Amino acid sequence: MVPIRTTIGRVSTAATLPIHEVIPALRRALTLHRLVVLQAPPGAGKSTSLPLSLLGEPWLAGQQIIMLQPRRVAARAVAARLAEGLGEEPGGVVGYRVRFESRTSGRTRIEVVTEGILTRRLQRDPELSGVGLVILDEFHERSLNADLALALLREVQGALRDDLRVLVMSATLDPELPARLDAPMVESQGRAYPVEVRYLSADPVGRVEDLVARAVRDALDRDQGDVLAFLPGVREIRAAQGKLAGVDAQVLPLYGDLPLREQRRALLPDPVGQRKVVLSTSIAETSLTIEGVRVVVDGGLSRTQHFDPATGLTRMVTGRVTRDAATQRAGRAGRTAPGVAYRLWSERTQPLLGAARPAEILEADLAPLTLELAQWGAPDPGALAWLDAPPPPRIETARALLRGLDALDEQGRATTEGARLLDFPTHPRIAHLLTGGAAQGQGALAADVAALLEERDPLPSGSGTDLTDRVAALRRWRDVGAGGGDPAVLERVERLSRQWRQLLGVGAADDAPDPFAVGALVARAYPEREALARPITAGLSRGRFLLAGGQGAALPEGDALAGASALAVAHLDAAQAEGRVFLAAPLDLQLLRAQATWEDSVRWDTRSGTLVAQQELRVGALVLETRPLRQIPAAQRINALSGAIRAEGLHLLTFSPEAAQWRARVESLRHWRPDDNWPDVSDRALLDTLDDWLGPLLGGARSREDLARLSLLPAFQALLEWPKPQQLDDLAPTHLSVPSGSRVRLEYRLGAEPPILAVKLQELFGLEQTPTVNAGRTPVLLHLLSPGGRPVQVTQDLRSFWNSSYFEVRKDLRGRYPKHPWPDDPWTHLPTRFTKKRGG
After folding, report:
1. Same fold yes or no, 18-187 and 380-517
2. Strand, helix or coil for residue 768
3. Which residues constitute the signal peptide according to the record (predicted)?
4. CB 75 within 8 A of CB 45
C-alpha cells in the first residue's frame, strides 16, 4: 500500500492550527481504510482539536471516539482542552477515565482514557459496542498498553468489527510504521509557532539539577514567557526547585504522583500574571499544553523502568534522552507563541543520541500483559499481530510468576483468581495481595499495605526497612493527622488506600498492625521473596537472608529486622548476587512451613567432593528441615554427578592412555571423513551427553575418588555401532609395522592433525614412502629418533629426508653413536633396531 502523505510546512496562527490543513486528507483516509497513521509535530493540534472535527463523520454514525493517552495528567488535560473547544467542562460531550477517576455521562462522545482502561473495556466487550473510532495518541512512546491495545484492536477488526476505525498518531513516528501496519499515513509538518533550538558549545559536566537551575536563571533573564524544564525524576526536581529559590517567578513541580490541584497549578497560568517555571519529568513531553510556556530547558536525561528477568525485579534507570523525545520536549515551547528550546548538550552530540526509545514490550515486566492475553483467550502471544512480539523468555518468566500467584493454570489459561486480579487496576502482584487480604478478613490492612507498596516511602531516610512501621505511621496520620512521615506522601497513600478499600468494600483501620499479618500479605504479592536468615559465620554477618527465589539479600547495618528468623521482602535492588533490602516485614515461620513440601535433594558438595543426599522441607530455595536420604534414585544420582563434572570439568575423570587414544582416533576420523558419521567425542560433546554415555557407570559413585576410578574405555567403545569398531581399527590402527619388523604405537591427536609415529631412524632404512593411515589418505608425521630415543627430524616426506637431511643427521650422530650403523646409502642398508654387532 502506498502511504498517503499530506505535508504542510507553513506556520499558522493560534486560530488555524496546522492539523486543520490535513483534516480533509485524514477524513478521506478514514473513509477508505480501517487503520490510518497520522504524524503531526508538537503544537499541531492533533490531540486537542482533531477529535472534535471527526464527530460528524458518516462512518462514525453517532458512535463514540475513544482516545488512549499514555499518562493520567495528559488524559485529564486533553479532555479539558477538548471540552473547552465546545464551551463545556469534562463530563459532557467530552469525558475522561483514568485509574480511580471518571468524568463521563450519557452525552459523552469523546472519551479520553489511559493506563489499562481501554484493555479493561475490550475484555468486557470485545466488540467495543457503540465505539466507531479508537485513537492511539503519542504512539511513539510505544508503551506496553498501547502495543497491547493495537494488537487487540487489529484482532477485533479482523474477527468482529470490520467497521471499527483505528487512528495511530504522534509527533515522531518510526518512518517504517505505515508499511509495517499496511496502513496509509497522513502527515503534517507545520507547527503552531516556530521554536528556536539552542545548544551548548560543549557537553557540560555536573549534576543535572545544577545545570538546569543555571539554564533556567539565564532563560528568565534573556527570554520572555514561562519556562518548562525537564529533569529525570522527583529528586532532581526538588533539588532544582531549591536552587531556584528567590527567582522572580513561581517555581512549580510537575510529575505523575503530584496531587491534582498542584498539577493544575503547573498547567494553568498564574492567576496574578506572575511568570512561572515548571520543573517536570518526561510526563510533560506528551499532549500537554502548559499555558504561557515559551521556553523549554531540556536537561537531556530521562528515567525509565527496566525489568531484570534474572531477578524478577524492576529498577529505575537514568539515561540520555532519545532524539524523538528531545523533539517532543522542544515542541512544548511553540504551543501558544514563538519559543526557544535550550538543550543542555552540544550540537555535535545530538546525532549521537538514540533515534527513539525502545518499545516497552521488549524490556518491561510482562506479567500484566501475559495475564491480559490469557483472559483474552490468547495464551500464545504469537496468535496476535504485534509490531514487536513480546520476547518468549520474558513471557515464560511472567507465566512462572502468575502460576505462583494462582492466576494461570498449567496450560497458561487464566484461573478464577486470574480473572479476579484483572478487576484491580494494578499489577497482578498487588491485586493478589488485595484479594488475599479480603478473603482472610484483612481487607483494611491489605489496602494500607498495597497503597504503601505503590507509593513513595513516607518515612525519612534511615527509618529502617520494616513495612509495619509505615502502616503504623499511616494509621496515626489517619487518626490524628500526624504520622511522623512526609504529610504529602501520607496523603497520597491514604487516598490510594481509600480507593482500594472502596473496591474491597471495607472500612479504614486505625489499630496497631500485626507485623506477621503485614509479612503474610507481602509474601502473597512476592512469594519468591520469602526469606530465611542465613547462619552467622565468618563470611556472613547478621541481617543476611536467602530468598525463596535463590537470591541473597542483606538488610542495612543495624536494621531492626536483622534479628528476624524470616522475612517477606517487598522492595530490594536488582543486584545479582546479594540485593539490598529497602522494605520488608517479619514472616511467621509457621506460614512458611504450611507452604513447604518434602523434596529429595541429591547434590554435589564441591568442598568435600562428595554427593550429599537428603530429604528437604523446602519453599523454593529455602530449606526448613532436613533428614537423610538413604536410597538415592538413579536419575538424581546421574544428574548430580553429571552436573558436578560439567561444573568442575572432565578432569574429575581419569582417561587411561587407551581411552585417550580411542577418543583421538575417533575424532581424527570425524575430521578426515566428515561424511561417515563418526561420533563427536570432543570435550564439549562429551560434557553435553554425559548422562547418555557415562550414566550407566555411575551406579555406585558418590565421591571424587569413585569418579577417578571409573574405566572409561568400555563406555567409549559402546558409542560405536557395528561395523564402526572394525572400521576404526582398519582406518586408524593403534600400531604400524616398520621395515625392522617392529610394531610401533601411533599417537593420535584430537582434531585433523596426522598421528605421530615416533621410530628410530635405523628401523626405516630402505623405506621409500612415508607410512599412512586412513586408507592411505593421511601420511603419518614421522618423529625420527636417535639411538638414544631423542627426535632428530620431524617429517611427512621420508623420501626427501633420505636424499638430503639424512646426511646432516648422519654427520652429527655417527660420532655420538659409533656402535650403530650409519651407512652412506640408506636406501640399500638393512633396517635394524640393534647395534652393528648384534645386527651382524
Report:
1. no
2. coil
3. none
4. no
Phi/psi at 604 (nearest 5 deg)? -95, 125
CATH of segment(s) 18-187: 3.40.50.300
- Residue 420 CA to residue 609 CA, distance in Å, equals 50
Per DSSP bridges, beta strands 110-114 and 64-69 are parallel
Residue type, 541: S
3-state secondary structure of 308: strand
- What CATH number has the domain spanning 380-517? 1.20.120.1080
Nearest to 837 by CA among 813, 816, 819: 819
Summarize pLDDT for 145-180 with one digit per residue, the tens: 999 999 999 999 999 999 999 999 987 778 889 999
Mean pLDDT of 810-818: 90
Cα dist from 771 to 53, 246, 447, 748, 834, whole Å? 92, 96, 86, 14, 22
> Cell 650403530 sits at which residue?
820
pLDDT band at 474 (very low <50, low <70, confident <90, very high): very high
Q: How many Cα atoms sit within 13 Å of 313 on the Cβ side?
A: 23
Distance CA 474, CA 395 (A): 36
552-554 and 597-605 beta bridge pairing: unpaired
- The pLDDT tens digits of the residues spanning 96-147 come to 999 888 999 999 999 999 878 999 999 999 999 999 999 999 898 888 999 9
SS3 assignment, position 371? helix
- Rounded CA-CA distance 46/286 in Å is 11
- What count of other Cβ atoms lies within 10 Å of the Cβ of residue 306? 15
Give the C-alpha separation, 822 to 38, whole Å. 94
**Dihedral sign (CA 242, 244, 250, 251):** negative
What's the mean pLDDT when you consider all of the chain? 90
- Is 106 within 8 Å of 33 (Cβ atoms)? no
Beta bridge partners of 228: 278, 296
CATH 3.40.50.300 correct for 195-362: yes
Q: How sure is the predictor about 539, in pLDDT bands with cuts at 50, 70 and 90?
A: low
**Distance in angstroms (rounded) separating the CA atoms of residues 289 and 298:** 16
Cα–Cα dist 117/433, whole Å: 21
Q: DSSP labels for 604-648?
A: EETTTTEEEEEEEEEETTEEEEEEE--SPPHHHHHHHHHHHHHHH
Please give the single-letter amino acid code of residue 329.
Answer: R
State the pLDDT at residue 11: 37
What residue segments make up the domains of the chain, in order of their start?
18-187, 195-362, 380-517, 733-839
Which residue, 391, 364, 380, is CA-closest to 145?
364
Q: Say which residues have a Cβ less than 8 Å from residue 736's Cβ, sequence separation at least 6.
A: 743, 744, 746, 757, 771, 773, 780
The pTM (predicted TM-score) of the whole model is 0.77
Q: How far apart are CA 317 and CA 301, in angstroms?
A: 10
**Sheet of 195-200, strands arranged across:** 195-200, 339-346, 293-298, 226-230, 276-280, 250-254
Q: What is the DSSP string of 348-359?
A: TTGGGS-SSPPP
Instruction: Report which DSSP code applies to 653.
Output: S
d(CA 794, CA 805): 11
Q: How far is 211 from 209, CA to CA, in rounded Å?
A: 5
3-state secondary structure of 243: helix
